[in-house]
């Protein structure tokens, strides 16, 4: 059996690396007393998978964690309460779904919001850490740039295979991954039919 837990990662927890975040979530699941399935071999580890990690410093409102369990959960609201109680500040469990959906094969887009104190230049090439260059406006879909109280807000979606670190853009001081999408629809709405 598999459950999918939606978390929000915010506050100081947004500065955890992907490995630190993974370890924190797994420790929290262990403290809840979940009977997780483990891999086989010399170093068994819990069968837990995460959607794409976010760059260090990014707020993540669409952090989904799939957990394989030995047996079903009797009271999901009690588990959610336990998770909320035992999770460190800044890692907030939101919903629990019972679903065998493989999110890593299903999710194909993400929605982001960026805040910048300067109008971002999105039409000139930007180099990734790998050395590859890209032009942001060419891969950003549903792009909106709004000026509110001297802060530029950039809202866009991007295909999963074209993800990039938004902090590579000049003067971005806050980045938020708002939603995980399946063909433009919020994945939580798709999982809603399987919510427990």
UniProtKB/TrEMBL annotation:
Residue span, DUF2344 domain: 3-130
Pfam families assigned: DUF2344 (PF10105)
Stored InterPro entries: DUF2344
Protein name (record): DUF2344 domain-containing protein
Organism per entry: Fervidobacterium nodosum
């Amino acid at each position: 059996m598999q459950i999918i837990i939606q978390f929000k990662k915010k506050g100081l927890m947004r500065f955890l690396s992907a490995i630190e975040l993974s370890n924190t979530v797994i420790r929290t699941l262990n403290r809840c007393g979940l009977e997780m399935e483990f891999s086989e071999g010399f170093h068994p580890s819990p069968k837990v998978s995460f959607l794409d990690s976010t760059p260090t410093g990014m707020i993540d409102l669409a952090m989904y964690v799939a957990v394989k369990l030995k047996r079903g959960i009797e009271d999901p609201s009690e588990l959610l309460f336990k998770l909320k109680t035992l999770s460190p500040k800044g890692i907030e469990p939101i919903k629990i779904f019972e679903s065998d959906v493989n999110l890593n094969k299903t999710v194909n887009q993400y929605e982001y919001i960026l805040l910048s104190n300067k109008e971002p230049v999105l039409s000139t090439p930007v180099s990734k850490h790998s050395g590859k260059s890209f032009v942001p406006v060419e891969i950003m879909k549903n792009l909106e740039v709004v000026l509110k109280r001297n802060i530029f807000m950039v809202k866009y979606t991007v295909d999963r295979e074209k993800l990039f670190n938004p902090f590579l853009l000049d003067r971005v001081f806050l980045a938020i991954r708002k939603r995980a999408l399946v063909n433009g629809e919020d994945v939580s709405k798709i999982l809603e039919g399987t919510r427990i």
